[in-house]
Design a protein that fits this description.
The chain contains ten helices and eleven strands. It is α/β, with parallel strands linked by helices. The chain has a single domain, classed as P-loop containing nucleotide triphosphate hydrolases (Rossmann fold, 3-Layer(aba) Sandwich), CATH 3.40.50. A hairpin with a 2-residue loop joins strand 2 and strand 3. Helix 4 packs across helix 5 and helix 5 crosses helix 6. The longest helix is centred in the last third of the chain and has 18 residues. The protein is globular. The chain binds adenosine-5'-triphosphate (ATP). Adenosine-5'-triphosphate binds next to strand 2, strand 3 and helix 1.
Length: 276
């Protein structure tokens, strides 16, 4: 089993997120009546505390997105368990999961329904998961728009009327509106241009300070990871090859694959915190 070093917890003994022996395989096809399966990521375990950020990096096809999707309940694990605040989250229990953990997808240009205005997009999770009446939902949507740096007027806009950066703010607002403890983001920052990326990173950091959020970020930019993550997991071919505090992993990788991966990322290094 790939085991990430457990981190000391702050205050409570129970980590906010505990991932225990989690793995995911896919049956790709049957050959001569025998199933052929592909393991996206092999059994792995880690914990994450409140207010902390875990980055997941790895080469293409290493299992990053599948891990993010399994955490967010988009697909069930093949084995293993996820605990939030000590409570086991069952694969089908979407209602409980989405009040504790929400996901932001890679491309805000495709993740928002172009036929709904932003107000309706943000009200949807409230209608599905809370007993708030229409006036209360409206108020909460306006508060959440402000929280992510948008205006009350944006309620009436459609996704195609706003910029990619503003769309990512809407996606963040949709993730925040049920007040989750954890946000999982699958390369939600990588595709934004540098100035917008800086704004979204600053927004994520300020929301983390203000709300005590924890983030699990699939990332492909070493500058971003160094700046915002406390812990780092490097995946290679579905296996954890490095795991631990970000500074330690970046300065002293223990495996050949980890070193090679980081060297590749160094070559692609794009972002520095003071870039505006
Ligand atoms: N629905 C699926 N059916 C079959 N195989 C899949 C499926 N989803 C992912 N895989 C396989 O699982 C492995 C991990 O895929 P995944 O998308 O999680 O990798 P990744 O690290 O996110 O890659 P990238 O950085 O290119 O997005 C790959 O070999 C992929 O082909």
């Amino acid at each position: 089993m790939d085991q990430v070093q457990p981190k000391p917890t702050t205050g409570s003994q129970v980590p906010l997120l505990k991932v225990d022996n989690l793995s995911r395989s896919f049956v790709t096809h049957s050959r001569f009546f025998r199933k052929v399966s592909k393991t996206a990521f092999h059994p792995l375990s880690f914990t994450l505390d409140r207010g902390q950020t875990l980055a997941i990096m790895g080469d293409s096809g290493s299992g990053k997105s599948t891990l993010a999707k399994v955490l967010a309940g988009v697909m069930p694990p093949t084995q293993g368990n996820i605990y939030i605040d000590g409570e086991k989250i069952e694969p089908g229990d979407d209602k409980k999961r989405c009040q504790l953990l929400r996901m932001i997808f890679q491309d805000p240009n495709t993740s928002l329904n172009p036929r709904s205005n932003i107000g309706k997009i943000l009200e949807m999770p409230l209608s599905l998961n809370t007993n708030l009446d229409a006036a209360q939902r409206h108020e909460l949507v306006l508060d959440t728009l402000r929280m992510v740096g948008l205006l009350p007027d944006h309620y009436h806009f459609y996704p195609q009327m706003i910029s990619t950066g503003q769309k990512q703010r809407v996606a963040l607002a949709r993730a925040l509106i049920l007040s989750p403890n954890i946000i999982v983001a699958d390369e939600a920052i990588s595709n934004l241009d540098i100035s917008v990326r800086s704004q979204i990173i600053n927004l994520l950091l300020s929301l983390q300070t203000r709300l005590g959020l924890s983030y699990v970020l699939v990332a492909n930019d070493l500058g971003v990871v160094r700046h915002i993550s406390d812990h780092l997991i490097l995946l290679h071919d579905g296996h954890v090859v490095e795991a631990g505090p970000t500074k330690k992993v970046l300065s002293n990788p223990q495996s050949e694959q980890g070193l090679r991966l980081l060297q590749n990322y160094h070559n692609e290094y794009r972002w520095r915190p003071n870039e505006k």
